[in-house]
Amino acid sequence: MAYAPAMPPATPDARPRPVLRFAPSPNGRLHLGHAYSALLNARLAERMGGRFLLRIEDIDTTRCTDALTEAMLEDLRWLGLRWEEPVRRQSQHWEDYRAAAQTLRQHGLLYPCFCSRSYIAARSEGTDPDGAPLYPGTCRALPEAEAQARIAQGEPHAWRLHMARAMAVATGPLVYTRLHLPEMTEEPVPCHPARWGDAVLVRKETPTSYHLSVVVDDALQGITHIVRGADLEAATDVHVLLQTLLGLPTPYYHHHPLLTDEAGEKLSKSRGSKALSDVRRCGTALQDVQSVLRALLPW
């Protein structure tokens, strides 16, 4: 395809210098699960002689605020983490995502969807790996003239990936390399993006989505190793497909176990898990927090 982002310069070595990133969303306060993931990325980058980047994934401009971003940075500095500057903030790079979406549209791989969430939920016959209702395909067969007329009238719409077409034009096997820690061994893993159905790649309220922006950013920043929570492992299916369609490199992936609370539930912002800032306010020493987190690392 014609999409060609400005890639970072290659190194003269056979393999580029490893580049890892921690990419939180400032839509709430960081908890110990975030701290563990950030520390794991930083420690792995150090062990591999690589670089450690921080990226702010703030495409949700309603919930992601400057105040939460600054609080997040303060928490990470308190943990003793350091990263390269400047920090990439997704909300400052809409044009990068628009360009990628336009490439997919030009190849007939995106279509506008005017359906509401309630409409989809009432007609869906299954769920995606995240548990959301699978799209029933209502707008997939809309005549182009009708779709363009509704867009011209200002009707809100998202842009969905035409999964059947995408799978048909994707060349080569859809596979990524899983990195096992602490052994640093590699394992090829097949992807199954069709289980996501016609995923949204451009939201109604913003010119991108998590899937699209993270793939574009990882390529633009030259990320070679993606280390993130196990809750995002299934999303790798869509990411590898998009990397294939857009002609972008596929990094190595490692999905680490999630930290859980006393009830065995994963730590999360939505469940109100104790924030790092609360841990600090309780007088917990930095050395104690670092000791707990380091004990969980694979080395």
Architecture overview:
This protein has a single domain, classed as Rossmann fold, CATH 3.40.50.620. The chain is 35% helix and 15% strand. α8 links the parallel β9 (225-229) and β10. The chain has a 4-stranded mixed sheet with strand order 7-6-10-9. The protein has a 3-stranded parallel sheet with strand order 1-2-3. A 3-stranded antiparallel sheet has the order 4-5-8. By secondary structure, it is α/β, with parallel strands linked by helices.
Largest sheet: 4 strands, mixed
Percent in helix: 25-40%
CATH H-level superfamily title: HUPs
Strand order of the largest sheet: 7-6-10-9
CATH topology: Rossmann fold
Query: What is the β-strand count?
Result: 10
SS field, number of helical segments: 10
Overall pLDDT level: 93
Please report which band the strand proportion falls in: under 5%, 5-15%, 15-25%, 25-35%, 35-45% or over 45%. 15-25%
Q: Using the CA coordinates, give the radius of gyration.
A: 20 Å
Q: What's the CATH class label? A: Alpha Beta
Net shape: globular
Class based on secondary structure composition and strand pairing: alpha/beta
Distance between the termini: 41 Å
Order of helices and strands: EHEHEHEHHEHEEEHEHEHH
Any guess at the CATH architecture? Answer: 3-Layer(aba) Sandwich
Spans of 5+ residues with little confidence (pLDDT < 50)?
none
Total number of domains: 1
